[in-house]
């Protein structure tokens, strides 16, 4: 079995005969090893998107769906294909296979077929949007951010949302004390106890700042117990670098972006560059490594990327040039 054929299989670019070859190979010892080592990684990356109440996918149904996409409607089906249920760990591998196929073939639209009722709100680069959730809670999304949630929440049901990006939450307290949980990438979860807070969750990094009320953080395997945050607390996690810390900050300054301004308080220029890349989709280059570690404090307008660059240039004596989608800071 070649890697080229496997890649074409996951991209739906194979013939029916090639598809049968791949499926048969998956049932061999070598094929099982391949799935376990490669597909498990994709399963872990996508697991944060799946609601806990969703059952594991049916292996035979998954196989039929794959065969339906691979074979023309007129193709005879007299050649049997071994069922995925003969795998040593069928449901886990079927889920991993599903995750890999969804990622490789357009991911999101195919994923929506499994969870058709969920609502997804996506903001463009540099654009903000305020949403009202089914319970009356509101979320202001920063640029390049995505939020997924159910269109309705029943009484006594846990209110769950999935955030990828940055958002400011104003959570409504319910009479029956239903839990409100924000799921972040890399298995970080926030349990809300009636509050207002700011969340930034991109790739392996996450930053949570509590404005009012109280929240409880579940940082997965990195903590033996859940972390309870108080107003003014900032919690930062970089899962890849294994950097975790908690400190007290000016919470209002941390969420000032939603009111049209950015407030820096001992912020490194490298952090500012990362913010610009995340929110506006540009590539920021700081030519001097020492300049990356330089800290800045102050407030600048946040109406657009250009106003931010002008503010940085004026207040902090920086030379900034823009070439297409690339920003150079000197």
Q: Which features characterize this protein?
A:
330 residues, alpha+beta, Jelly Rolls, Phage tail protein beta-alpha-beta fold, 3-stranded mixed β-sheet, 10 helices, 18 strands, FecR, FecR_C
What does this structure look like?
The chain has 330 residues and is an alpha+beta fold. It folds into 3 domains: 112 residues, no CATH class; 135 residues, Jelly Rolls (Sandwich); 70 residues, Phage tail protein beta-alpha-beta fold, CATH 3.55.50. The chain is 31% helix and 30% strand. The protein contains 10 helices and 18 strands. Strands 1, 2, 3, 4, 5, 6, 7, 8, 9, 10, 11, 12 and 13 form a 13-stranded mixed sheet that branches. Strands 15-18-17 form a 3-stranded mixed sheet. A hairpin with an 8-residue loop joins strand 10 and strand 11. The longest helix is centred in the first third of the chain and has 18 residues. The protein is globular, with a radius of gyration of 23 Å. Keywords: Membrane, Transmembrane, Transmembrane helix. This is FecR family protein.
